[in-house]
Structures are given as structure tokens and as C-alpha cells.
Amino acid sequence: MIVILKPHAEEKRVQALMEQIRGQGVEIHFSQGTTETILGLVGDTRHVDEDWLRASDIVADVRRVSEPYKLANRRFTPQDTHVTAGGKAIGEGAFAVIAGPCSVESEQQLLEVARAVRNSGATCLRGGAFKPRTSPYSFQGLEEEGLRLLLEARRVTGLPIVTEIMSETQLDAFADVDIIQVGARNMQNFRLLKALGQCRKPVLLKRGLSATIEELLMSAEYILAGGNDQVILCERGIRTFEPMIRNNLDISAVPVIKAKSHLPVIIDPSHAAGIAWMVGPLSRAAIAAGADGLMIEVHNNPRCALCDGAQSLDPAQFDALMGDVRRRVAFEGKALL
Q1: Which residues, listed in sequence order, are joined to residue 28 by a DSSP beta bridge?
Q2: Is the separation of the CB atoms in 202 and 161 below 8 Å?
Q3: What share of the chain is helix, strand, coil (3-state, %, to 5)?
Q4: Which of the residues 47, 80, 151, 277 could staple to 92 if both were Cys, CB 3.0 to 4.6 A apart?
Q5: 121 exposure class (CB count in 10 Å sphere: 0-12, 13-18, 19+)
Q6: What is the distance between the alpha carbons of residues 278 and 311, in angstroms, rounded to a whole number?
Q7: Alpha-carbon span 75 to 1, nearest angstrom
Q8: Between vectors from CA 96 to CA 91 and to CA 98, what angle results, nearest 5°?
Q9: Rounded to an integer, what distance in angstroms lies between the CA atom of residue 3 and that of residue 58?
Q10: Is 200 helix (H, G, I), strand (E, B) or coil?
Q11: Burial class of residue 286 in the structure, from the number of CB atoms within 10 Å of its CB (0-12 exposed, 13-18 middle, 19+ buried)
């Protein structure tokens, strides 16, 4: 349920109304926009009397929210949310480019890529320290050593770092990570999502391989319900019957999410197709669709990559793409910060 207040409602009266509402056993999400103030009622609102609320002379309207996601719902928070990490903003007009290798393989490899993507204009550095792989025999990442190397790359380049967590038991090890990534396979790891709701650190939540948009928003709701409002959604392609590409990029997810939610949404074109030459066209489509950023895999020698080399750009390819991205982002009225 949402309660829309009249403009210029006296603060004392607003506080008194909120106390009365809380007395009926529900929580309130307060959202003050440029044109209206909204009280989002979270919990069991069946016994909250709508007529009683409408009778208040500071209430403009009362509406029931039918969707199961409340805090992620644009009706609760009409204005766009922006997430800030390491001085870099994502969302609300700030366009992000998160770039780096699929896996951290060595100090030399990571620093070379980190310097290259920074010089080309990337806003954040990505790199996998812990790697969830389909085969137990594939490279699983450098783990704790990989985290150490990412922190060193941040020190050298100044780029905020983004890396994937596997379990809630790793939260202490991720204390210095700027943005914690939840991979597609963990999108519905609810114990992890609940723990991330308590950590007050930006979370990049990837859509599952077969997840609906509503399921993605419900996973975000777990984090928001814990009190962490710094959530970035990531569309990375879904599994379909098409065998010519790794996944199908659901470009329609961007405008749908924008209509349904206030959370920023970025596109991962590398995982979407799994083919390096498709990263450019899919990036252009993402910008045109209204995405708040891109997440692109870059490797200094893709042919020798220990993970996902076929979808990785080399530094020269990434630099060329960034020139195109910069022009298109400016045309859309956004800033590459």
C-alpha cells in the first residue's frame, strides 16, 4: 500500500500520521521526491483502513500495490535510485562501464588490463577471484590471492573493484570490495541475499539464466528488505533454445525494469552472446534501450585466457568501443563518470 501526501504537508502532522500507521504493525518506507511525498507501507496491510487514511486532510491518495516486490517498486520510490561506490556513481543519469578480465590470473595480467581499461575511460574494474564453473575441473580462480590482487589494482589505478561472492560466509573477506557481485547462479541464494541486506555495501545482482524479471526484482527485494538500498540490477542474457549464441540478451528487460523499478540496471554484453565481436552491437543496443551501464570482459591476451576468452575484448578493441560508447552516452544525455 502507498499513501501519497499532499504537497507542503506540515512535517509535524506527517510524523504523527506515520506514528499512527506504525501502531498498526506495519513498517513505512518514506520517499520524498521533487513533486510528491510517498509513504510506502510494508508488511501485512490488510487491516489498515484505507478510508481512515483518505480522511486525513494531508493525504492526497491511497493505493494498493499488487506486485509482490514493494521496496524495489517504482510506485514506492518514483525517483531513480543511484548507487555510489568508490566515488563513482551508477544510475540517475550517471553511466558506468565496468571492465576487466573474467578471472584474475596473475598480478601482471590484472595490472596490465586494469591500466588499459582505466586509460580508455572505464569507471570500475571487474575481475573474478572466486569462479563458479560448470565443470569442477575448470579453473576456479585464485580465491583469496585474487582478492588481494584486485585490491592492489585498485591502489595502482584508483578504480573501484567489482568481484563475485559465492557464499555469505565470505562477507568478512569482501569487507574492502567496493561492489559485491551476485552471479546468475546465486540470484536465488536467499541466505546470501539476506546477508547482503545487512552489509550496507553496493550489490550488483545478476539475472539468473532462466529467471523472470519479477523473480529478479524479488531477489533484489531480499536485499532491500534487509536495509541495503544500494542495489544494481544486471541483465546478462537468458537461456533459450537458440544454439548459435551463449545466451539471449533480453534487451526488453531494460525498459520493463525501468518502468517497474527505480533501481539502476546495467547490461553484460559479454556473457549475453559469448562472442567477442557481438559485444559492440549489444552495447549499442543497451545504451539505446536506456541502460545505466555496461559490464565488459577485457583480457590482455584473450586466446590464452583461463576463462571465457572467446567473449573477451583485447585492450585495443575495448578502447575503440569506448570511443563509440562515449559518443552515444553523451547523445542520450548521460554522463560517463
Answers
A1: 41
A2: no
A3: 35, 20, 40
A4: 80
A5: middle
A6: 8
A7: 9
A8: 135
A9: 10
A10: coil
A11: buried
Contact yes or no for 176/200 (Cβ under 8 A): no
pLDDT tens, residue by residue, 118-127:
999 999 999 9
CA distance 164 to 180: 6
Which tens digit of pLDDT belongs to each residue from 207-264? 999 999 999 999 999 999 999 999 999 999 999 999 999 999 999 999 999 999 999 9
Residue in the block written with cell 553496493:
202
User: H/E/C letters for each residue in 271-312?
Assistant: HHHCCHHHHHHHHHHHHHHCCCEEEEEECCCHHHCCCCHHHC
Could you give the CA distance from residue 103 to residue 109 in angstroms, rounded to a whole number?
10
Type of residue at 282: L
Query: Could you tell me which residues are beta bridge partners of residue 213?
Result: none
pLDDT at position 134: 80
Q: How far apart are the first and last CA of the chain?
A: 36
